[in-house]
Every structure is written in structure tokens, then in C-alpha cells.
Design a protein that fits this description.
515 residues, mainly alpha, 23 helices, 2 strands
Length: 515
């Protein structure tokens, strides 16, 4: 006889509790969004990092110097035998007859603690882990920055595009470039400014010069912007004084390693006249449209952001504008002062053994809040189909560069050194390349058509599984708050942490600034 499941009169019927993974994920993300973003991105970066095979000479020079500092507590690399390494390092004469790496101190100091923990002979694992975790941390902090101006869904979309649709994945998250730590410190400085923590932001931005000395211009622009926006000399002095330790650390490192107080360190020097105006225009053109390193070629979602950039500038608050101006000054100074070896007269390569544009990474991070706002404006004009298609192309480009590597294909030449289709066609014949390109174009066309058709399953998925808006035709990237124009405001003050309403929108005060 089957036992009865009926309850006694007056007692409620008990039902077993069911755990829904989707609900659990939403709850965890709502409580610790930055941590979830960091862990998810870190898993991808660590799993696709470079642990052997083709290693860039720049990153190897930094990794070996970090290993020597962490395990042997020295910067002198004279004890290394060249035959023990895959290829020669960037080694220059140092102070007191030493032979030292010409890398900037930031990347070396970033990986040295991990090498001191691991110990033993040299290996690339600690350096790759340090780079991947730093880049993932920068993306997590960037999410928190964007979330001060956009709803969580839009902030998450912008962070995913920055993490997997730019060279942050294939450069900063793959090997020990200087961009790994510089992005982390810049994102930390941006978040500290939004929290009105002037000393913390100064410390972070000042320390970024240990990775790239030209980032001192970023700190300078932001410091002047603080003085103008806050109308407070005490804020300016606090911020400026906090940048001092980082700058002093750069000069101290160069004195110990190279025996001279210099900004360029182990490089031959910085030419104050730069590359000249003609070469600067060529470098700007190459950075934008070169088939090898073109920013608009590798990350086509920026085309959509560019279409709404002017409107986004007019409606944005003072903080994203200041960050974007600092990013523009940063990339122009890099292209002006950095000696480059162009693949041709107009196109800049900025090195080999990586895919994407690495010279613009810090500028993209600084301009991310404004670029996300510009993308939202463009989505209203052109619809979500264009946004999803260009986003998919951007992520697909760097996914191919991260997963399809020379050692994976069983060859000694990395097919992503230059323009991937040409290299793959050369190594494996034109037919597989043409076939793969045709399949990719067809997939994009089908996705576009399905997203254009209302009521389809893929159109419903455009909201990333979240509840749809009240208006079915509203773009999925629609922001939930509107920033008021600030042209009529004479005295601008920086935003305190954003207070969100119950609906998730950011509260704004009478001047249009987040409050």
C-alpha cells in the first residue's frame, strides 16, 4: 500500500525547494558583479595564454628579467647563456657593468612575486598568469566604471566587447606586455576618481608610468581636469602629490639599472621632435585602417560607436569627456614619440607575434565610458542588428587570434603575426581560407536576417535572457537614464558614486551629473 502524501487538515502542503541555476547566477552577479566578471574573463585569459612556442621578444625579455629578480634577486642577466633561450633578449649595458633587460620596470615587477613563489628554472607560466590576471582585473574594474553611467546590462555588454573584442585578449591577457598592468592601474584610477578618492587615483595613475612612461600625460590631463572641474587647489595638490611615488620609482629604477636618471630607461632615448607630422598622419591612418593592425578592421564595433560619438559627447557628463580626452592625448603621444618600424610607408606594425592593435589599448580603456554611450546612441538609430553583427565580428576576429595559434596548427610560424587570412592561405592553401570566409559571411548574413525578423527566437535572445522591455521594439541596449546636456553649466563638479533607483536607473541631479 502506497503511503499517503496528503497532509493533515489545517497544515499547508509542503513542496520540495528547487534550485534554478539561472536564478542563482543572477543572485551571485547582483551581489558581486565585479568578482563574477573577473572570474569569467580570467578563466578565458588563463586558458588561452601563451605557455610556449612563439613568444614575443619584448615579453620574453620582461619575463626573464622578472624571473631573475624573483628567484636570484638581481637585475644582472650576465649569468644567462644565450643558447638556453628560444631567441635573444633585449639586453643592454647597465650600471656597474651589468647586462640588463631594456623593459620598463612595471612588467618586471608585476611578475617577479609569482616567480619568487614558484622558484626553480625559468618558465613562462608565472609571467603569463600575471598578465592574464591583471588584464582580467582591469576588465572587472572597467565594468564597475561603466556601470556608474549605464545600466548593468549595457555595462556588461561594453565590458565583454572590451575584453574579447580588442587586443586586450590577444596582447595584455596572453603575454607579459606592459599593457597588462597599465590597464589595471588606469581602471583603478578611473574608479577612484568616480569615488572622489583623489589620493588613491593619484597613486594608481602615478604607478602606471612604471609600465608606460607616456602615461604621465594621462595623469597630467586628468589632474588639470580635476582642477578645472572641482575649482579646488587642495584636490589638485592631493592628486598631484600622490602621483609622485610612481614617477620617483621610475627614475629610481633607471638609476639602479642603467646608472642614469632618464625617462626612456633602456631605450636609446626619446626624440623630442618625434616622428614628424607626416609620419604621425601615416601612423594614425595605419592604426585605424591597416589590414594588419587597423583598429576599425580588428574591432568594427567602433564604427558604430564613431557614428554616435558627437551626440554622446554633447549628452555626456564631465567625467567620461575627461577620460576620453586623456585617452586621445595618450595615443597621440605614443604615436608621436615611439619609434616604429612600419610594414609599409603608411601602415604601422608595432611588432610581431600578436594580433590586433596594442598601442591603442590604454586609450580605448580610458574612452570606454564615452564609447559605450556613443554605441547606445547609434543603436537607437540603426537598430540592434548592426550592433550584434559588428560585435560578433569583433569578438570572432580576436577569438581566432587567441585559439588558432602556430603551435596549435603544428607549424613554427604564427599565422596571426600579420593579416590572418593571408597567412593561413599561404600556409594551408587558398581553398580552406575561402571556404571558411564564405561560411563566416553566410553565418553573419543569417544572423542579421533573423535578428531583423521580429518575434524570432534569436531576437528574444538579444536581451541576454533578461526580461524584455515594456516596448517590444525597443533596442536591447537602450539605457535607462538620460544625461542632461551640460553646455549651460559653468561650474562642473565630479560625480560622486551613482545612487541607483529600484528600477536600476542611475539617479541624476539637476545639473545632469550622476548623484
Amino acid at each position: 500500500m502506497t503511503p499517503s502524501t496528503s497532509q493533515a487538515p489545517g497544515h499547508p502542503t509542503s513542496t520540495p525547494a528547487t534550485i534554478r541555476p539561472r536564478a542563482v547566477l543572477k543572485a551571485v552577479f547582483a551581489r558581486w558583479p565585479g568578482l563574477v566578471v573577473f572570474l569569467c574573463i580570467a578563466v578565458v585569459y588563463v586558458s588561452t595564454g601563451t605557455y610556449g612556442g612563439n613568444v614575443n621578444r619584448d615579453t620574453l625579455s620582461a619575463a626573464v628579467a622578472a624571473w631573475a629578480l624573483g628567484t636570484h634577486h638581481t637585475l644582472n642577466l650576465a649569468f644567462l647563456h644565450p643558447s638556453k633561450l628560444a631567441f635573444p633578449l633585449w639586453i643592454v649595458p647597465g650600471a656597474h657593468g651589468m647586462l640588463v633587460s631594456n623593459r620598463f620596470p612595471g612588467a618586471v615587477l608585476l611578475a617577479a612575486p609569482l616567480y619568487s613563489i614558484v622558484g626553480g628554472p625559468y618558465g613562462p607560466v608565472p609571467a603569463t598568469l600575471a598578465a592574464a590576471l591583471s588584464a582580467a582585473g582591469a576588465c572587472a574594474l572597467l565594468y564597475k566604471v561603466i556601470a556608474r553611467f549605464q545600466p548593468p546590462r549595457v555595462a556588461l555588454a561594453g565590458t565583454v566587447l572590451f575584453a574579447f573584442g580588442t587586443a586586450t585578449w590577444t596582447v595584455a591577457g596572453r603575454e607579459l606586455w606592459e599593457h597588462s598592468g597599465s590597464e589595471l592601474l588606469l581602471a583603478a584610477g578611473m574608479l577612484a576618481i568616480l569615488d572622489r578618492r583623489w589620493v588613491a587615483s593619484g597613486l594608481a595613475l602615478g604607478a602606471s608610468v612604471l609600465f608606460r612612461p607616456d602615461l604621465a600625460l594621462v595623469a597630467m590631463v586628468i589632474g588639470v581636469g580635476l582642477l578645472w572641474a572641482e575649482r579646488s587647489w587642495s584636490t589638485f595638490i592631493k592628486f598631484g602629490a600622490a602621483t609622485g611615488p610612481g614617477v620617483a620609482g621610475l627614475f629610481a629604477w633607471n638609476w639602479v639599472a642603467y646608472g642614469r636618471l632618464t625617462v626612456s630607461g633602456g631605450y636609446s632615448g626619446v626624440r623630442l621632435m618625434g616622428q614628424g607630422p607626416i609620419r604621425l598622419v601615416q601612423s594614425i591612418t595605419g592604426n585605424l585602417v591597416s589590414p594588419e593592425r587597423g583598429l576599425l578592421v580588428c574591432t568594427p564595433i567602433l564604427l558604430l560607436a564613431g557614428a554616435g560619438l558627437l551626440s554622446a559627447w554633447r549628452r555626456s557628463s564631465a567625467v567620461p569627456r575627461l577620460f576620453a580626452v586623456a585617452g586621445l592625448v595618450c595615443v597621440l603621444s605614443t604615436l608621436w614619440f615611439t619609434p616604429v618600424t612600419p610594414h609599409s610607408d603608411a601602415f604601422m606594425t608595432a611588432g610581431d607575434d600578436f594580433i590586433g592593435n596594442r598601442y591603442c589599448l590604454e586609450s580605448l580603456l580610458l574612452a570606454a565610458p564615452l564609447l559605450v554611450e556613443a554605441t547606445v546612441v547609434s543603436v537607437r538609430r540603426f537598430g540592434t542588428a548592426a550592433a550584434w553583427t559588428l560585435s560578433a565580428l569583433s569578438i570572432a576576429f580576436f577569438s581566432a587570434g587567441a585559439f588558432v595559434q602556430g603551435e596549435t596548427l603544428g607549424v613554427n610560424i604564427d599565422p596571426w603575426d600579420h593579416w590572418a587570412p593571408l597567412q593561413v592561405a599561404y600556409l594551408y592553401g587558398a581553398f580552406p581560407t575561402v571556404l571558411g570566409g564564405a561560411i563566416g559571411i553566410a553565418a553573419v548574413g543569417v544572423t542579421w536576417a533573423l535578428l531583423r525578423a521580429k518575434g524570432t527566437a534569436l531576437a528574444r535572445l538579444s536581451n541576454l535572457g533578461l526580461p524584455r522591455e515594456a516596448e517590444p521594439s525597443a533596442p536591447s541596449f537602450e539605457p535607462q537614464q538620460v544625461a542632461l546636456p551640460l553646455a549651460h553649466v559653468r561650474r562642473l563638479r565630479f560625480a560622486a558614486p551613482v545612487a541607483r533607483t529600484e528600477g536600476g536607473a542611475a539617479a541624476v541631479d539637476g545639473r545632469g551629473l550622476p548623484c
